[in-house]
């Protein structure tokens, strides 16, 4: 049977304006008709009056936007790896073991430049093969070094990445690359793993070290065997993220430790959203770097800057947030279809459920012998949420709603839900990631811990249920699909007060098509699980209209939230975290994402709550002085760098304090004694 691709969201003309529902005044207390749907809704059953979803919603603004011409970047070059002057074993490994014959554009441009030496900044779209663009030259150089590399030599290359999952992924790629040169030993150290076993591996010797910043600082401070005398490469993958708020102290400590020991290594900074802001670091840590933009033909040599890389980097110098350049254009994968949904807050949750059911429901599960059973092409979906509490709430809601009492998934569902965020136990995080990575379908509810770098095969839908902080993070999130030339879809949910974000993206040459949220809701009629559409309050008659179906599903969700105090507390916690996260948008986006533009009662409904929790309860959208004070406190706390010991969202395990002055002086003293260079 022909595999069906999940059809893209239906793209419809700009949405019809919402009809203002007539008031329901004068109705009897327990029998009300939903004015716009005619649906009889009563307070029987759940003991609560269930307010209508479809009245008193803000107008849906009509956007007449012309398409913008997105920046183009050809993924593949015409160059074969055989033409890049690589060791024959390297080429056959790439071809036979990894299945790659042709270099991607960024690999063709970067590999020769990196092999020449000198610092390099590499900008190329998500999913374009940047890992190999630094991995191949490093392994190529190490395997050809005179005086064969010994494990006991220690670290020749450090590869820094912002998350544990990305560290594991990059480490696995390096492991594949060194297969023909098994005397070169790679290693990986990340927060959450056992420090003792990492120490043991470092003691035995690691030549290419992949690490998350927090854990590397920890070992710099506490593992004497970790030395940088022979370091030849320092790679910052997702460099703009590593140099942004939250990692600046660790990066400063790492650079100082390296500068105090190594004779000056080659620095490589990569990201799909590398902006000129990173040059600021270049002024401190890079030596006249070459700038490679895979979307451009030329390779630019920035102006000469004399600098002494033995300069100690004062931590405060690193503490300034990188300013995203207003005019930085980002390249979006060619085969990525991007949409936006303008959804009133009251309808947000039920619209999300409708999207999940319609994209991930079992299309047709063909009952054939397992050997030839085809996977029906249900979507494999990432859903980005603004914080861990929201992930936990939606995960609990969806898994329980879709599972029968005995925990078995209802036959009609075949919908596997996963969750991933920085507060999870590392072993659980690893198991969840590996299982989701291996599946053909399913839904991963996640925070931005999954936004960058992860190469998750078969992901074909990205749903941004909460808007990311910056356009750069938007680019990385949607970049989890449509990788290396494949196709994919991405949709972002926007409240009517947030539609200006579409223009913010357009200013970066990112063009989205509008989808009418009522069309998504209409899919409930055929794809919502039947048990969500009928119950004792609503008669068993299946709903005939979208509004009826949406009302019934929302009621089920609210009944679940109010059925147990644990559920209600989870929802309240998620609601409060959402409000707090909302207060932390960067100042450049504050005019779009401002708490006073939200109707908190409607926002509460999107967490299945029948009224806004008292802490932020208000009739209109104005916050009381104390609430404003609370939010401003939250905001100032959030904008400060992550405190030592605090768990950053990327779970980088900031347990270790930073490299102390005395340790650094000890390292510097040792610099003059022991130095040995690998001759080329
Ligand atoms: N030359 C190549 N030919 C085909 N596939 C490749 C090639 N090089 C890398 N890939 C594959 O492309 C995918 C994306 O690679 P990689 O994760 O390095 O991209 P990236 O540019 O680092 O993405 P991101 O910006 O999201 O971190 C991986 O599955 C990788 O195995």
Automatic annotation (TrEMBL):
<dbReference type="InterPro" id="IPR027417">
    <property type="entry name" value="P-loop_NTPase"/>
</dbReference>
<feature type="domain" description="DEAD-box RNA helicase Q">
    <location>
        <begin position="79"/>
        <end position="108"/>
    </location>
</feature>
<dbReference type="GO" id="GO:0016787">
    <property type="term" value="F:hydrolase activity"/>
</dbReference>
<dbReference type="GO" id="GO:0003724">
    <property type="term" value="F:RNA helicase activity"/>
</dbReference>
<feature type="compositionally biased region" description="Basic residues">
    <location>
        <begin position="660"/>
        <end position="680"/>
    </location>
</feature>
<feature type="domain" description="Helicase C-terminal">
    <location>
        <begin position="371"/>
        <end position="536"/>
    </location>
</feature>
<comment type="similarity">
    <text>Belongs to the DEAD box helicase family.</text>
</comment>
<feature type="region of interest" description="Disordered">
    <location>
        <begin position="615"/>
        <end position="680"/>
    </location>
</feature>
<keyword id="KW-0547">Nucleotide-binding</keyword>
<dbReference type="GO" id="GO:0005524">
    <property type="term" value="F:ATP binding"/>
</dbReference>
<keyword id="KW-0694">RNA-binding</keyword>
<feature type="compositionally biased region" description="Polar residues">
    <location>
        <begin position="35"/>
        <end position="50"/>
    </location>
</feature>
<dbReference type="InterPro" id="IPR001650">
    <property type="entry name" value="Helicase_C-like"/>
</dbReference>
<dbReference type="InterPro" id="IPR014001">
    <property type="entry name" value="Helicase_ATP-bd"/>
</dbReference>
<dbReference type="GO" id="GO:0003723">
    <property type="term" value="F:RNA binding"/>
</dbReference>
<feature type="short sequence motif" description="Q motif">
    <location>
        <begin position="79"/>
        <end position="108"/>
    </location>
</feature>
<dbReference type="Pfam" id="PF00271">
    <property type="entry name" value="Helicase_C"/>
</dbReference>
<feature type="region of interest" description="Disordered">
    <location>
        <begin position="1"/>
        <end position="50"/>
    </location>
</feature>
<feature type="compositionally biased region" description="Polar residues">
    <location>
        <begin position="621"/>
        <end position="636"/>
    </location>
</feature>
<dbReference type="Pfam" id="PF00270">
    <property type="entry name" value="DEAD"/>
</dbReference>
<dbReference type="InterPro" id="IPR000629">
    <property type="entry name" value="RNA-helicase_DEAD-box_CS"/>
</dbReference>
<dbReference type="InterPro" id="IPR025313">
    <property type="entry name" value="SPB4-like_CTE"/>
</dbReference>
<comment type="function">
    <text>RNA helicase.</text>
</comment>
<dbReference type="InterPro" id="IPR011545">
    <property type="entry name" value="DEAD/DEAH_box_helicase_dom"/>
</dbReference>
<keyword id="KW-0067">ATP-binding</keyword>
<feature type="domain" description="Helicase ATP-binding">
    <location>
        <begin position="111"/>
        <end position="292"/>
    </location>
</feature>
<dbReference type="InterPro" id="IPR014014">
    <property type="entry name" value="RNA_helicase_DEAD_Q_motif"/>
</dbReference>
<dbReference type="Pfam" id="PF13959">
    <property type="entry name" value="CTE_SPB4"/>
</dbReference>
<protein>
    <recommendedName>
        <fullName>ATP-dependent RNA helicase</fullName>
        <ecNumber>3.6.4.13</ecNumber>
    </recommendedName>
</protein>
<keyword id="KW-0378">Hydrolase</keyword>
<keyword id="KW-0347">Helicase</keyword>
């Amino acid at each position: 049977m022909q595999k069906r691709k999940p059809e893209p969201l239906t793209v419809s003309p700009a949405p019809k304006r919402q009809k203002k529902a007539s008031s329901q005044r004068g109705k009897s207390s327990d029998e009300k008709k939903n004015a716009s749907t005619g649906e009889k809704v009563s307070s029987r059953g759940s003991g609560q009056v269930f307010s209508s979803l479809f009245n008193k919603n803000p107008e849906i603004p009509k956007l007449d936007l012309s398409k913008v011409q997105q920046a183009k970047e050809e993924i593949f070059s015409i160059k074969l790896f055989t033409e890049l002057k690589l060791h024959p074993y390297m080429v056959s490994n790439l071809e036979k073991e990894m299945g790659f014959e042709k270099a991607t554009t960024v690999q063709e441009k970067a590999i020769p430049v990196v092999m020449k030496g000198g610092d390099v900044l590499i900008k190329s779209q998500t999913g374009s093969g940047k890992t190999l663009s630094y991995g191949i030259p490093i392994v190529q150089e190490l395997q050809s070094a005179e005086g064969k590399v010994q494990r006991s030599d220690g670290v020749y290359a450090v590869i820094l990445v912002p998350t544990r999952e990305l560290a594991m992924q990059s480490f696995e790629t390096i492991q594949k690359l060194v297969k023909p040169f098994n005397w070169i030993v790679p290693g990986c150290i990340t927060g959450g793993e056992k420090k003792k076993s990492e120490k043991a591996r470092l003691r035995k010797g690691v030549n290419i070290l992949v690490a998350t910043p927090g854990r590397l600082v920890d070992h710099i401070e506490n593992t004497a065997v970790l030395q940088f005398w022979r370091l030849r490469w320092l790679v910052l993958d997702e460099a703009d993220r590593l140099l942004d708020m939250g990692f600046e102290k660790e990066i400063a400590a790492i650079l100082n430790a390296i500068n105090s020991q190594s004779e000056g290594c080659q620095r490589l900074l990569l990201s799909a959203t590398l902006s000129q802001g990173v040059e600021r670091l270049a002024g401190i840590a890079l030596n006249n770097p070459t700038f490679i933009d895979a979307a451009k033909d030329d390779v630019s040599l920035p102006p000469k800057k004399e600098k002494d890389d033995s300069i100690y980097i004062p931590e405060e110098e690193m503490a300034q947030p990188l300013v995203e350049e207003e005019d930085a254009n980002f390249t979006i994968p060619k085969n990525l279809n991007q949409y936006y949904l303008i959804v009133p807050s009251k309808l947000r949750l039920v619209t999300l459920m409708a999207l999940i059911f319609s994209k991930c429901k079992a299309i047709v599960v063909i009952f054939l012998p397992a050997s030839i059973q085809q996977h029906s092409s249900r979507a494999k979906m990432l859903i980005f949420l603004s914080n861990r509490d929201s992930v936990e709430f939606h995960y609990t809601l969806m898994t329980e709603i879709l599972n029968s009492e005995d925990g078995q998934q209802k036959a009609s569902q075949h919908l596997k839900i996963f969750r991933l965020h920085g507060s999870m136990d590392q072993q659980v995080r690893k198991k969840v990631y590996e299982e989701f990575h291996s599946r053909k379908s399913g839904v991963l509810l996640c925070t931005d811990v999954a936004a960058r770098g992860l190469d998750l095969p078969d992901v074909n839908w990205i749903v941004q249920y909460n808007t990311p902080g910056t356009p750069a993070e938007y680019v990385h999130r949607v970049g989890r699909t449509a990788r290396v030339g494949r196709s994919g879809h991405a949709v972002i949910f926007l409240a009517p007060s947030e539609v200006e974000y579409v223009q913010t993206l357009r200013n970066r040459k990112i063009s989205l098509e509008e989808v009418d949220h009522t069309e998504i809701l209409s899919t409930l009629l055929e794809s919502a699980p039947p048990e969500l559409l009928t119950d004792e309050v609503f008669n068993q008659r299946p709903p005939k209209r979208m509004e009826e179906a949406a009302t019934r599903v929302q009621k089920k969700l609210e009944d679940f939230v109010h059925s147990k105090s644990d559920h209600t507390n989870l929802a309240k916690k998620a609601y409060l975290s959402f409000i707090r996260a909302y207060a932390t948008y960067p100042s450049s986006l504050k005019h779009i994402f401002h708490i006073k533009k939200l109707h908190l009662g409607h926002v509460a409904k999107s967490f299945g709550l029948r009224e806004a929790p008292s802490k932020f309860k208000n009739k209109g959208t104005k916050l009381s002085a104390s609430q404003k004070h609370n939010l401003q406190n939250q905001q100032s706390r959030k904008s400060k760098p992550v405190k030592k010991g605090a768990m950053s969202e990327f779970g980088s395990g900031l347990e270790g304090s930073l490299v102390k002055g005395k340790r650094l002086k000890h390292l510097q003293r040792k610099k003059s004694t022991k130095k040995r260079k690998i001759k080329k």
